[in-house]
């Protein structure tokens, strides 16, 4: 008699566990799409498709509960992307036959990215402590690093930047972070 009573709640508990995580994933998907829609509306430079693809592919994004979680995820994405670009630049610099102009551009990018990576850490602290104005300044300077790096290569006519795709990715990812920061910033007084 006792056993029967104890057996019953178990599958029920499992059922709720499974369905709540499934619903959570669906909810997070909606949150990403809604956020990206707003981001793309606010920033014409930002592609909706890129935003959704990037955020959905990010680790833990299916657990995101709100805009603040997505903000943290997007700042991490920027940092990871820049760290990877920095390693890639170091690889490129190993090539002894690099044109001196390209080499100097790559060195500039390396410096810019190293600084920017530490700024993303400050941005994360500022974001988490809801200092959205500071987080905005931080991420704006991170965004500048990707454009300044890319522009360097274009100073010499006919030169193809080996970092265009990566810089564009970083630029777009940073635009997502900035957009989220600014959404939260504009509602600052409504938040706790
Ligand atoms: C879009 O990108 C251009 C070129 O980088 C920049 O000058 C402009 O400020 C950007 N617009 C927004 C809304 O971020
Ligand atoms: C950088 O971001 C882009 C866009 O989300 C992605 O396709 C690429 O794989 C990322 N690179 C790294 C190393 O995370
Ligand atoms: C940058 O990436 C976006 C999104 O993937 C794309 O729409 C845009 O054409 C790219 N721009 C450049 C200059 O590659
Ligand atoms: C910010 O305010 C607007 C309009 O008041 C609202 O639609 C939006 O959901 C709010 N965003 C957040 C993150 O609270």
Automatic annotation (TrEMBL):
<feature type="signal peptide">
    <location>
        <begin position="1"/>
        <end position="28"/>
    </location>
</feature>
<keyword id="KW-0732">Signal</keyword>
<dbReference type="GO" id="GO:0005576">
    <property type="term" value="C:extracellular region"/>
</dbReference>
<dbReference type="InterPro" id="IPR006501">
    <property type="entry name" value="Pectinesterase_inhib_dom"/>
</dbReference>
<dbReference type="InterPro" id="IPR034088">
    <property type="entry name" value="Pla_a_1-like"/>
</dbReference>
<comment type="similarity">
    <text>Belongs to the PMEI family.</text>
</comment>
<dbReference type="InterPro" id="IPR035513">
    <property type="entry name" value="Invertase/methylesterase_inhib"/>
</dbReference>
<protein>
    <submittedName>
        <fullName>Pectinesterase inhibitor</fullName>
    </submittedName>
</protein>
<dbReference type="GO" id="GO:0004857">
    <property type="term" value="F:enzyme inhibitor activity"/>
</dbReference>
<feature type="domain" description="Pectinesterase inhibitor">
    <location>
        <begin position="27"/>
        <end position="180"/>
    </location>
</feature>
<keyword id="KW-1015">Disulfide bond</keyword>
<dbReference type="Pfam" id="PF04043">
    <property type="entry name" value="PMEI"/>
</dbReference>
